[in-house]
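Example record used in the benchmark description.
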Amino acid sequence: MSKDTKILFMHNAAMWYRIPFFRMISEEYDLKLVFTHIQVIEDIYDDDINSNIQGLEDVDYSILANSHGFAKGLISKAFGDYDILVGGSWDTLVELIETLFLFIITKLRRKAFIIWREEWGWRRPSTIKEKGLETMVKFITRHIDAMLVPGLLHKQYFNKTIGVAEDKIHIMPNVSNISDNIQYIQKEDKHKTVLYVGRLIERKGVIYLLEAFNMLNDVLDDVELIVIGSGEDEDKLSKYVQDNNMNNVVFTGRVDNEKLREYYIKSNLVVVPSINHQMADPWVFVLNEAMYYCNPIIATDAVGAAPDMIVDNGYIVEEQNSGQLYDAMLKILSDNDLEKKMSRKSYEIIKDKFQYSNMLNSFKNTIDTVLKNRKSE
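Model output (structure tokens):
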């Protein structure tokens, strides 16, 4: 029956962690997948863009060229043959304008419109631009058929701040596919490894991790910090390490996804020390990946995924608070029983709640709800 439902799915880019999800929904529905701003991959992750997307060989997808920032052909796609359009973004002014066009077209054609977003209530500047954006977002989202969001903070934001009806907001968990073979991993008891994975930019808050780890060095022996990633703050962070004679801190530079597995397996704790700088982190897939390999985790309250993924398997600490971060790291690394308990809990959470089957089921439930509501109108 679901194959009779025609879905036009517009998304900005073909991120590697989304590929299995797109493939799965194409098996369930009559799907046309459209990538509108695929250069995002190159802009953010410095990855090459390829028109032949590995993993989507049997999926009906197209990539729109951009002209002056706008996705060419987006409007003609919106006038195509479908029952439900999934899409919408306002990360840039261009994307906001495109979303407004999609909203108008679906309304005129009496088609269902679902928006998939990852904002939550992080601290925003009080500017005319921000207020104007919020007004437009409120207008659009209060008049669509449904919203897909990845977690609790996101649902709360769109319900309480933006004013979207609670029954229209559906949680579809974010999933990462660093491996398809999940199994429990026993960690090393003696030599302890703390791992950071991400860009080395101010918003990632790595300096606070280094400060906390410097304090940890005074009380724990045989502990190492591995920092994976690159970015504009790399020299500043390296200088801090050198100035404080932190010989047990290793900067690896960027590591390919297929090689990250080795680092996650060998680590005892993964830390995500993000801060609210211009924006907070919408999700952070490093938490998914860390838990996939049975790591206890620590994240700050500037990480969107934290309330959903940290439940007795780590700690949420205040952003920009090196002292709290130090305390949390010390509690886990100085107590082998606690570390093992948290490791097992990470494994259970990721296995039960953050698989692609969970993501697909949430998507299908949302589609079913929208179709049911449409029939009853």
